[in-house]
Amino acid sequence: MVDPTPPSGSAATPPPAPPAPKATPKAALKLAKEPKAPKPVKDQKTAAPTAAAAAGDGKRELTPKELKEKKKAEKAARRAETKGTSGAPPSAQAGHKPKEASAGNKGGAKVTVQQPATSSGGIVKTIYVTSGGSGNQPVKTVAKEVEVIVEPAKDRGLVGLLKDLSVEQNEKKKGPVFGLGHAHVDVHPAILTLGMQINQYVLSGSTARCIGFLLAMKRVIQDYETPPASSLSRHLPGHYLSHQIAYLLSARPMSTAMGNTIRWLKQEISTLPPDQTQEASKKHLVERIENFIREKLTVADDMIVKTTVDKYIRTGDTILTYGKSQVVERALLEAHRQGRIFSVIVVDNRPLLEGKNLLQGIAEAGIRCEYVHLYGLEHSIPSATRVLLGAHAIMADGALYSRSGTAIVATTAREFGIPVVVCCESIKFSDKINLDGIVSNELGDPELLVNMSDTKAREMGPLQGWKEINNMRIESFRYDVTPSDCIKAVVCEHGCVAPKSVASVLRSSMAAAAAGSAA
Amino acid sequence: MAPTAPTSTLQTPGLKWWLTHLETDFHHENSVELYVGALKRRVIRNPVPAAVGTAQLFLRLISSYRFQSIRQLVDYISGVEERLSAARPREMSVRNMVRRVVGIIREEAENNGMGDQFQEALRSEDFEEALQGGPTALKKRPSLMTVKSFAVAASNPSLTNVFEIFSHPSSSITSSATSSPPSTGVAKPQSSVQHDVRPAIIQDIQELIEELDSCETNLAEYAMNVIHRNEVILTYGFPSTVQRLLLRAAQKRDFTVVVVEGSLNVYRKTHNAVMNKDTANEEDEDAAELAARKSLQDRGIQVIVISDSDVINFMGRVNKVILGTEYVFADGSLLAPAGTKNIVRAAKARNTPVVVLSGSYALCPITTFFEDQWIEMGAPKTVDFQEGYVIDNVEMPNPMVDFIPGSYVGYFVTNNGIVAPNAMYRATLDLYHMSECDLL
Fold this sequence. Notes:
The complex is a heterodimer. Chain A folds into three domains: 25-149, no CATH class; 180-299, Four Helix Bundle (Hemerythrin (Met), subunit A) (Up-down Bundle); 305-506, Translation initiation factor eif-2b, domain 2 (Rossmann fold). Chain A is of the alpha/beta class. The radius of gyration of chain A is 28 Å and the shape is globular. Chain A contains 17 helices and 13 strands. By secondary structure, chain B is an alpha/beta fold. Chain B contains 21 helices and 14 strands. Chain B has helices spanning 5-9, 15-24, 30-40, 47-64, 70-87, 92-111, 115-132, 134-139, 149-154, 162-167, 171-178, 190-213, 215-220, 223-226, 240-250, 267-274, 286-291, 311-315, 340-349, 388-393, 424-432, and strands at 232-236, 256-260, 302-306, 320-323, 327-329, 334-337, 354-357, 363-364, 366-367, 394-395, 401-404, 411-414, 417-419, 438-439. In chain B, the strands form three sheets. In chain B, strands 3-2-1-4-7-12-13 form a seven-stranded mixed sheet, sandwiched between helices. The two termini of chain B are 45 Å apart. At the A-B interface, helix 6, helix 13, strand 5, helix 14 and helix 15 of A face helix 16, strand 3, helix 18, helix 19 and helix 20 of B. Chain A: It is found in: Cytoplasm, Cytosol. Chain A: This is Translation initiation factor eIF2B subunit delta. Chain A: Belongs to the eIF-2B alpha/beta/delta subunits family. Chain A: Keywords: Cytoplasm, Initiation factor, Protein biosynthesis. Chain A: Residues 1-116 are annotated as: Disordered.
């Protein structure tokens, strides 16, 4: 880990070595860099020639691509710095970084940005300054650089944030572009198929995706051959699996359940006894995966359905639910099968209208139903006695992360004093905390809002052609965050837990899983 | 656009039709009948068209009606009002307009030294009611401009049973029209009453109509007070009042608008409004006028359209919620398009201020008691008829409005100024020259 940037970037503490001719803080900042130049000795050897070349031809005019790269590099540098020992204030770093680059741009001090190399463990990033541009030219270039960096004022607020999000998710800056043609050669056919299904929302539920992933992984492992001069526990997770996962990530952002599963799988592989034969290891892993599907998903669902039916659906109840959750649907049908007489209010909303699917299932089974969209919630909720919700994930602070609109239902239910019960397998418990509904949310397809038809056939409404209009966006998020104080109980396979204690359940179940794999 | 073209050729009668009718073949009895029918069939609906239609009707009625005393005029008007309100009890702008007209008559009567006549007219009306006595009187709607509040409190709200009211032949209209007016204490020669008062009344009603026409423009005047630089504004649906205000603000300020598309009843209209498309088949002619303007987007305002379900996601980044309304009650509560409650609740959770735009026609001198009676239900919209097998087993309520208590509102913007919810009582009563509200 090389940390090339100065520990003290602030103008208040000028570096002692060079006498600062310019009194401006900017110049001081600029000079602060120079004594640093010889410091990363290791990199100088490797990077200097390329630095000269890059500065010579590439950096004269900044194409958008270069700009993007530079920003990326800066970000990586910032991250590396904060990781490093020096506690330099990030604002100061952010301040002087562009100036460095500009100096290189002008031809004085040459700057090379080496792309972060992620492969060899950790991000290595060097910003390298060669040859002394004595500090008398930067003022002009700073101005020039600033005008390149500053975004249009419009993109600073909410819209800017949304644009960033969509770049991050739709243009797939991070991963490869989705598509069979873009897949790595090592990606297994089963994963290719799965990726396509996930991308097209054939498999859209969190649990469904998780099961699909595990089944595909089973085949991947069965077909896997360890290359010579490598061991399974090293090569499989590090090289082979990462390609599979990267491909799936490019299909759609990872769900919490899948993240947890992958973590578990990697742990399983890492705890394989090294002296085991490859065949034995593969057999063991396949067995473990089958067990995992049974324990964490199939039986877990059965347990949740049983608990929910036993505890929360009684004769005379009116159950309100939002959207469609597989577990909730099963619970409702099971309770109906057991002869309980209750009615269901299905709340739904554009653009996904998943509730209609649920409605068909339970209405055909003969359960008395009411179907409203979110705007009718206020009217229908007073007659509800209980709210049953599915989950995409439950955060470490107990907040529910579920289909967008759930938060409205839960907060309304709280106001009416109706208990909210969430059905969620413990595989969906997350160790992260999500405070915000926009950042780290998954963007849905905006065209869904343009569609006016609520059936399969699409009917383009008045919003058609919105992309041609400046200053116009349509946004639709897939999830939202419901604070934990709106939720009375979480039903998982271990029983009912309070939302706040989800984190401890997660820890103990992870510990149990680890113990199981060790045994 | 292609899909709207066939519907636009099919001219449904609306406010325009009604105004043309008044212009060309007005008849003091037939027109009232026609208007009752129009209200019942929802040909004229929504607060603004109903208000304009009613005010225009009364302008003609008063100019053609021959009256000998103030009392006779007031009786006549309240008789007509009763029929109109019975036709469409929840369209309160009809009644509001009649109140305004009665208020005008009172003012003019007082100006001409006939204030006592007016008072007497009211009192005798009450008296008449008391005479009828028994259950019939209890079933009657509270009369306009009642003096005694207990009489009002006792009367049953008619909203729940429209037909019951209608089954009672409106006796007052026939009685007041046919029976010779009582001449107690009328000192002046009767023909001169009409002569003195009528021109002034008519002029005042014309001013009222002008006020209605310029209402949205007046509301837009407050744009600079409501919207500030760099704010993120969230609005539910895209009602023309809000649209006008935003357009006005866009002339000077730079901000971002988040438009929630709204319920199934309005989302198509919202989309049209956002895209600045002409909705020729809509009943409000404002849309066409607004569509002719430069859109918000063209003026450099960022517009984000989101679905109802994403409101909570966005609320954390919104500075202000600006809402349109249908009716505002004197206690500061309001009726707004269904789904608004979700918005204001989310806003309250985040302490985001809520601003409600309301024309003066929407201010009802009523304090609410039974909230549910205001909720009008529409035809089911959530499931198409192709999915008929679902329809058999499923209820699909489609509420048209939400009742929102005043505690959710930061302030109201009316064309008479900015009013806090707790001051709404006073503002409303002042508007109608009333001393106290009806309790419904």
